[in-house]
Amino acid sequence: MSDNINFKDIWAKQTSVAPNSEILISEIKKMKQSNLRKLVLTNLLLIATSIFIILIWIYFQPQLITTKIGIMLIILAMVIFLFAYNKSYSLFKSHMNSQSNSDYLKDLLAIKAKQRFMETTMMNLYFILLSLGIALYMYEYTQRMSTFWGIFTYAITSIWILFNWFYLRPKQIKKQRAKLDAIIAKFEMVNNQLNV
Amino acid sequence: MEVFDEIYKRYWDRIFRLCMGYVNDHNLAQDLTQETFISVWKQLPKFRNESSVGTWVFRIASNNCLRQIEKQNRFPKGQLPSNLVEEKQTNIEPQIQFLYKCIAELPEIDRIIISLELEDVKQAEIASIVGLSEANIRVKIHRIKEKLTQKFTSNER
């Protein structure tokens, strides 16, 4: 066996042209902006919706307590969603990648587990609060309708909510879970390489 | 800013080779190297010399390579334009190509260890980058080199 292969020499022959560092820095700034834009947009959208709902409250002056509770639940649902969304964004931001590989992998695994919990639990909470909120909110207005239309309105809304709960929600959760689980499994595999 | 330029000049090639050993894909390695320096640029104000600059930069680079697992899930390998990469690599000596191919086929952590070793990083430093004991690193390097030598000799025949 020829033990004298000089791997270091062969290794060092691989070179690459470094792009101008100024181009790199301008790229960084662009990337930062696009990430931030998405975050700001989601926040604005939900905040605008909440303001709209509050305006309805002020403008139409609901009489029943159920309506008010309904409105608050809907807003709460959105606040919780925003909180989780912003939190999962900042999880990685505060995360240090200048630690050793083994610490980094442990960190990544912990973050992924947290993300998994947040995405499923928060999603459930969001759905429950939103559905409950809508159901309560509608009560005052359906009271003014005839019995038939009242039941009809509730039936349609319930179908929509049930469709969300039993079809869209599990689908969404399953998709996120599968993605996260695959990543977690791979990280664990690499992490195990450190223990051999 | 000046400090960054200095690190950038001194480490670009070295980081590129580390990434190349990890993924064996010219374009992807270029991207990973770029991402590493983005991280370096962002974190430089926080760098307090707890470790040497080299250790610090190599840690960021190797962790970034490990994060690659996540991105691979997003872009399955088949979707990347691979013909572009091959075109670029044809003018490289087959021996170099073979070495990088062999390294990229090793387990992830081994890829990082051997890349750092070939980059002439001290074993104590490798240990602090990876987070294993020095003795452990020494054993691993020995085994990896044996594996590579075997592959090279059987390739020659």
Structural features, described:
The complex is a heterodimer of chains A (196) and B (157). Chain A has 196 residues and is mainly alpha-helical. Chain A has 5 helices and no strands. Chain A has helices at residues 7-12, 21-60, 65-93, 101-143, 147-193. Chain B has a single domain, classed as Butyryl-CoA Dehydrogenase, subunit A, domain 3 (Up-down Bundle). Chain B is built from 8 helices and no strands. Chain B has helices at residues 2-23, 26-43, 53-74, 82-89, 94-104, 108-118, 123-130, 134-156. The longest helix of chain B is centred in the last third of the chain and has 23 residues, at 134-156. Chain B is globular and about 50 Å long. The interface between A and B is large, with 39 and 60 residues.
Number of strands of chain A: 0
- The total of helices of chain A stands at 5
* Proportion in helices of chain B: over 70%
How would a textbook summarize the main sheet of chain A? none
Please tell me the total number of domains of chain B. Answer: 1
Structural category of chain B: mainly alpha
What global shape of chain B is seen? globular
Strand content of chain A: under 5%
Q: Notable features of this structure?
A:
heterodimer, A: 196 residues, mainly alpha, 5 helices, elongated, B: 157 residues, Butyryl-CoA Dehydrogenase, subunit A, domain 3, 8 helices
Write a concise synopsis of the structure shown.
Chain A contains 5 helices and no strands. With 196 residues, chain A is mainly alpha-helical.
Write the topology of this structure:
The complex is a heterodimer of chains A (196) and B (157).
Chain A (H helix, E strand, L loop, with lengths): L6 H6 L8 H40 L4 H29 L7 H43 L3 H47 L3
Chain B lengths: L1 H22 L2 H18 L9 H22 L7 H8 L4 H11 L3 H11 L4 H8 L3 H23 L1
Helix pairs in contact in B: 1-2, 1-3, 1-5, 1-6, 2-3, 3-7, 6-8, 7-8
